[in-house]
C-alpha cells in the first residue's frame, strides 16, 4: 500500500482526458501534481483549476523527447520535491489496417504510446529507487493491448508492449517499495480522437488513413456514452493504495480475453515435462513470487 498524501505525481498527457481525471483524484487526496502535455493552453486551464486545492506545476513536453523528459523532471522536482508517483499516461489513438500503415504511422504510434512510457521510466525510476522513498508507477496501456482489434495494428502493438513492460517491471521491483499498475481502459469519454488527429497532422503524418477514419467515426458515438475520466482517476487512486496491478474500466473485453487465454493454454504441448522444462518452470514461478 502506498500512502499518497504529500507525495509528488508526474502525469504525462495530464491536461486532458484520463490524465486530467487522475490529476483531479490525486489532487483531492493531497498529492502535489505536475502535469506534462503538449497543449499549453489546456495546461494553463488545468493549473488554474487545481491550484486551489494543491500545489501544481505544468510543463510542455513531447514524451518522445528524452532530454526534454529529463529537463521536465528536474524542473518539477526543484519546484514540488521528488517525484514518487509516476503516471505514464500520454497516448494517441488511430492506426489503420495493414493496407493503410506506413513507417511514419508506425513510428508515431510506437514513439508516443510505447517509447513515451519507456522514456518516463528511464527518466524517473532510477531516482525513485536511489531515494528509497517508495512510490508507484502507473502505465496506461489499453484493453486493446490485451486483445488485438481491427484497424488498430500499430496501436495494439504499442499497447501490448506497455502491458508486457509493466508485467516485467512489477517483477523487477518486488520488495523495493515501489508498486506498479497497468491501466487497460476500454472506451472512456474523452476527446482522444480529436487530439490524436491534431497531433498526427502536426508531425506531418497527415495523409488520409481510411480504415482508421472509419473506426474513429464509429468510436465517437461509443465514447460519448462511456465512463467518465474522473471515475477512471478514482479507480487509479484506489489501485495505488491497494497496490493493484491490472486496472480495468469495464468488462467489454471479458469474453475476448477468456477466449484468448483459452487458446493459449490449449496450444500447450500435451507431453509430460522434461526435467529441463520442469526446472525452468519452477525457476520462473519462484522469480514471479519473490
TrEMBL record:
Its EC number is 1.1.1.62. SUPFAM superfamilies: NAD(P)-binding Rossmann-fold domains (SSF51735). Coiled coil: none annotated. The lineage of its organism: Bacteria, Pseudomonadati, Pseudomonadota, Alphaproteobacteria, Sphingomonadales. One of its GO terms (molecular function) is 2,5-dichloro-2,5-cyclohexadiene-1,4-diol dehydrogenase activity. CDD domains: SDR_c. It catalyses: 2,5-dichlorocyclohexa-2,5-dien-1,4-diol + NAD(+) = 2,5-dichlorohydroquinone + NADH + H(+). This is Estradiol 17-beta-dehydrogenase. Gene3D superfamilies: NAD(P)-binding Rossmann-like Domain (3.40.50.720). Pfam families: adh_short. Keywords: Oxidoreductase. Transmembrane segments: none annotated. Signal peptide: none annotated. It comes from Sphingobium chlorophenolicum L-1. Residues 7-191 form the Ketoreductase domain. PROSITE patterns: ADH_SHORT. InterPro entries: KR_dom (IPR057326), NAD(P)-bd_dom_sf (IPR036291), Sc_DH/Rdtase_CS (IPR020904), SDR_fam (IPR002347).
Amino acid at each position: 500500500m502506498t500512502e499518497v498524501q504529500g507525495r509528488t505525481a508526474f502525469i504525462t498527457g495530464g491536461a486532458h482526458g484520463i490524465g486530467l481525471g487522475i490529476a483531479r483524484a490525486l489532487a483531492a487526496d493531497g498529492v502535489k501534481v505536475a502535469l506534462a502535455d503538449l497543449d499549453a493552453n489546456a495546461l494553463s486551464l488545468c493549473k488554474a483549476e487545481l491550484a486551489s486545492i494543491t500545489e501544481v506545476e505544468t510543463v510542455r513536453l513531447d514524451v518522445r523527447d528524452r532530454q526534454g523528459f529529463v529537463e521536465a523532471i528536474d524542473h518539477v522536482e526543484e519546484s514540488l520535491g521528488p517525484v514518487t508517483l509516476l503516471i505514464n499516461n500520454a497516448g494517441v489513438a488511430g492506426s489503420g489496417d495493414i493496407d493503410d500503415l506506413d513507417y511514419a504511422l508506425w513510428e508515431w504510434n510506437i514513439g508516443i504510446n510505447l517509447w513515451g512510457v519507456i522514456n518516463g521510466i528511464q527518466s524517473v525510476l532510477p531516482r525513485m529507487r536511489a531515494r528509497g522513498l517508495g512510490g508507484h508507477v502507473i502505465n496506461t496501456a489499453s484493453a486493446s493491448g490485451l486483445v488485438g482489434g481491427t484497424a488498430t495494428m500499430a496501436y495494439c502493438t504499442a499497447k501490448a508492449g506497455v502491458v508486457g513492460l509493466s508485467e516485467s517491471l512489477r517483477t523487477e521491483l518486488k520488495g523495493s517499495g515501489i508498486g506498479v499498475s497497468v491501466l487497460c481502459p476500454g472506451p472512456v469519454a474523452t476527446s482522444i480522437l480529436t487530439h490524436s488527429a491534431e497531433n498526427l497532422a502536426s508531425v506531418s503524418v497527415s495523409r488520409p488513413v481510411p480504415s482508421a477514419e472509419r473506426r474513429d467515426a464509429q468510436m465517437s458515438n461509443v465514447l460519448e456514452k462511456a465512463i467518465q475520466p474522473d471515475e477512471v482517476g478514482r479507480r487509479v487512486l484506489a489501485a495505488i493504495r491497494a497496490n493493484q496491478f491490472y486496472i480495468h474500466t469495464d468488462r467489454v473485453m471479458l469474453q475476448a480475453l477468456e477466449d484468448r487465454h483459452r487458446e493459449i493454454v490449449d496450444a500447450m504441448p500435451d507431453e509430460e515435462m522434461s526435467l529441463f522444462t520442469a526446472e525452468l518452470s519452477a525457476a520462473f514461478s519462484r522469480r514471479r513470487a519473490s
